[in-house]
Write a structure and sequence with these properties.
about 260 residues; alpha/beta; Rossmann fold; 6-stranded mixed sheet; 4-stranded antiparallel sheet; 8 helices; about 25% strand; binds adenosine-5'-triphosphate; binds magnesium ion
Length: about 260
């Protein structure tokens, strides 16, 4: 393998590695409906970035583009410096992208144990499945007690933990997490974020889609705010709160 090029002088921060994700002028549509308009931002190697915005702003659409579930109509996407524009989901998964989709991402007719086995088989091989499962039960003890229960009979919070356990145990290079905290009890949100913090500390880059900025401020240093399919703000997560509020105020949705 070739050595990576040395960073140029004067480049700030950990510039040695290419960004985990770079979107450059990305547009995307659902049939005739255009949902993204020239979206550009980066997630640095091992960085955590919050993707914020109100309902319908395009957050999940960006998440779908990054994991290959939706094609881009214009622009470019690179992962770790490699152009991956419009590669199919399985290639992007192999390149290290995992996407925890909005909603529940669980096979309802399979048990908790079967769901985990299926998820780990591909990434850890047959020999690694049992160890991965034990790690998953350690991270989310409630799942251990429900291992023989069918996915469909779990509560919303338990289903979310199961879908998260599937990706957290064999961590990807870039995790795209869509509204993980939606509808979860505060204690469960804490468990979820604790696990995100853990894999982030291990070097996993995170793109965290959230509607509620306070959940992510402690984890993501930087935030991107979408508005009507375009980037309306990019900067420190702490400043994103004010940016979101002023956007909502401008739309008459506050006060
Ligand atoms: N499958 C689809 N077909 C047509 N339009 C869609 C589809 N999915 C999303 N859209 C539209 O694209 C726009 C962006 O939707 P998206 O789901 O990305 O928003 P979001 O920011 O994730 O919103 P939310 O916070 O409600 O999850 C919205 O106007 C939405 O109605
Ligand atoms: Mg969404």
């Amino acid at each position: 393998m070739k050595e990576p090029a040395a960073p140029s002088e004067g480049v700030a921060g950990p510039a040695v590695k290419a960004p985990a994700l770079e979107l450059d002028g990305v547009s995307a549509s659902y049939g005739p409906y255009r949902a993204l308009f020239g979206v550009s931002f980066t997630v640095g190697a091992g960085e955590a970035v919050a993707l914020l915005g109100s309902n319908g702003a395009g957050k999940s659409t960006v998440a779908r583009v990054v994991s290959g579930l939706l094609a881009v109509t214009d622009g470019r996407m690179t992962l770790d410096g490699v152009d991956r524009t419009n590669q199919p989901p399985y290639r992007l998964a192999r390149a290290g992208v995992a996407h925890v989709v909005e909603g529940r991402g669980v096979f309802g007719r399979l048990t908790v144990e079967e769901n985990l086995t299926l998820a780990f088989h591909q990434r850890a091989g047959r020999g690694g499945v049992a160890a991965c499962r034990e790690q998953a039960y350690e991270a989310f003890p409630v799942l251990a007690g429900r291992r023989h229960q069918k996915g469909a009979t779990l509560s919303g919070g338990e289903q979310r933990m199961l879908s998260l356990a599937k990706v957290l145990v064999a961590p990807p290079r870039l995790l795209v997490a869509d509204e993980l905290s939606l509808g979860l009890a505060p204690a469960i949100i804490d468990v979820v974020y604790e696990n995100l913090r853990r894999i982030h500390a291990e070097g996993v880059a995170l793109l965290i889609v959230e509607q509620h900025v306070d959940h992510v401020v402690g984890l993501a240093a930087r935030a991107v705010v979408l508005e009507h399919g375009s980037v309306a703000f990019e900067g420190p997560a702490s400043a994103a709160v004010a940016a979101v509020e002023s956007l909502l105020a401008a739309r008459g949705e506050l006060g």
